C-alpha cells in the first residue's frame, strides 16, 4: 500500500530543508511503523505502533524525553520516561478509551519476550498515547483489544501509511478529517549528516484557525462557507468558528543524531513551534504532547556502565530544532492531505480537505 494517495495534489513543502527519501518517520534508520485499522459502521478507530528498532526495546532501551505542552490527556508511561529518560516498549497510539487495553497488550508482549519481568527483573513501563476520536467512533464500545496492538506491531515496516489509518482512523483536524501524518528532514550538524522524522496523531483545531505554510487557508474556507449561506454545510461550518479549540495532538519525533535525554527534552519542546504554525493555540481542552527519541545508541537493561557515543554539543542543536519544527508542521499538513472522508457514529461525517475543497490546488496557487 502506498503511504500516500498519488492522485492528490501535493502538499506544500514546509521550509527549505530536504526531505528524506520516504518522507516519513521511517527515514530514521531502524524506525518502523505499523497500523491496525477498525473501519466498520460506528467503529472508526485503531492502533498505531512505532518501533524504535527491530530488537527488544526492554533489553536495549533507547534514550527519550517528552514535553507536555498542554496536559489535557490520558496517556500512560510518561512519568517513568521523564524520570529515567528511556523507552522500553514500542510507542503505541490509540483512542482515549483504548489506552488500558493497549497498555496491557504491551505488558503481555514484554513478558512473553522476557519472563523475568516483574519477578527477577523490574516491571515494564508501557507507553501509550491517545486522542479522543468519539465524534466519528463509538468510543464507548471499547472496541480496541490486545489483538489490535499485536496486529499493528506485526505490521510494522518502513512503508508508512498516513491519513485515516490506524489510530488516526476516527480523528478530526480543523473540523476536517485528520489522522496520522508523517514527515522527515535531512540536516547537517557540524559537518555530519543526520535524519529527523516526525509522526503525528492530529485531532485538534477549528477551521478558521487553519494555517498552511503561512497561508490562512482556514479563514479563506470559513469565508467561502459564510458566503454560501443557503448551504446547510456552510451554516455548520460557520457555527464551528465560535467553538473553543478542543481535541489533541501527539507528536513523535525520531532522530539518528546522538543526543541524551536532556537534549531530547529540548528537542521535543520544539515540536510546539511546528504545531503553532498551523494555527493551534494549545486550547484548554487539548492534550498536546511531544516525545523525542534517538536511535544513535541503546541503553542495555543489564549493565554496570553505559558507553555513550560523542554527543552533539548543545550549541550545535539549532539545525535539529529547525528540522523538528518543520517536520511537525509538515506532518500535520500530511495528515490533512492524506486523509479520506469518513462517516461513523450516528451518521457523523468528516470531509477530507480534498473533498471539502475540490479546487484546492488552484486556491493554494492563488494565495501565493
TrEMBL record:
<dbReference type="GO" id="GO:0004177">
    <property type="term" value="F:aminopeptidase activity"/>
</dbReference>
<dbReference type="Pfam" id="PF03576">
    <property type="entry name" value="Peptidase_S58"/>
</dbReference>
<comment type="similarity">
    <text>Belongs to the peptidase S58 family.</text>
</comment>
<dbReference type="InterPro" id="IPR016117">
    <property type="entry name" value="ArgJ-like_dom_sf"/>
</dbReference>
<protein>
    <submittedName>
        <fullName>P1 family peptidase</fullName>
    </submittedName>
</protein>
<dbReference type="InterPro" id="IPR005321">
    <property type="entry name" value="Peptidase_S58_DmpA"/>
</dbReference>
